[in-house]
Write a structure and sequence with these properties.
The radius of gyration is 17 Å and the shape is globular. Helix content is 65%, strand content 0%. It contains eight helices and no strands.
Length: 198
């Protein structure tokens, strides 16, 4: 099995099979990020497709200065922002049956409460500005460093930190206004290291 660097090098030379392996490896991450940016499954599918097409077209210019996954997240966030600006769909939510989150653990009551908290937080996220939502998701959900986010969005690390701080404060205010008294939760990770909140 080829490692990622080799796969990227082959894909850059036009190897469609190598690119397909990369797509298979990252398509769920791309979709989840698009879903959180857009707010509904239909739009997220379109954005994810746009991002993957952009990745295929842009591979010849990808120099490996950042991780392939980080570059793919950049393409996804740009595709989502462009889509939202075109369509002006800022307040849609995802039906529960279309969510791709892992099932909550514990008793049925705990599971129901966890699902409700996630849905409330999801709705609150859609009230943030695009730039604040983008940074919050890249940091809290995708676990990128401030430096990686700065490289993706062409921002100084200090700007990333201040926007993330404002995003969290806005989220708390929105949740309080909606009558939700819990704090913005820390991100949990499953056994594979993937974030499971929101």
């Amino acid at each position: 099995m080829m490692d990622e660097i080799t796969l990227v090098q082959c894909a850059r030379r036009g190897d469609a099979e190598a690119f397909e392996v990369l797509v298979h490896r990252y398509q769920n991450h791309v979709y989840r990020l698009a879903l959180r940016m857009c707010g509904n499954a239909h739009d997220a599918e379109e954005v994810a497709q746009e991002a993957l097409v952009a990745a295929w077209r842009g591979l010849p210019s990808f120099r490996g200065e950042s991780k392939f996954s980080s570059w793919l997240y950049q393409l996804t966030t740009h595709a989502a922002v462009d889509f939202l600006r075109r369509e002006k769909r800022h307040r849609n939510t995802t039906p529960v049956e279309e969510q791709t989150e892992l099932p909550a653990e514990g008793t049925p009551q705990q599971a129901a409460e966890t699902t409700e908290v996630r849905e409330q937080l999801r709705r609150a996220l859609l009230c943030l500005t695009e730039e604040h939502r983008q940074i919050f998701l890249l940091r809290q959900m995708e676990q990128l460093s401030y430096e990686e986010i700065g490289q993706l969005l062409r921002l100084e690390s200090g700007t990333v930190k201040s926007r993330l701080h404002r995003a969290k404060k806005q989220l708390q205010q929105i949740l309080l206004q909606q009558g939700n008294l819990f704090d913005v939760p820390a991100v949990k990770q499953n056994r594979e290291g993937e974030s499971t909140d929101v």
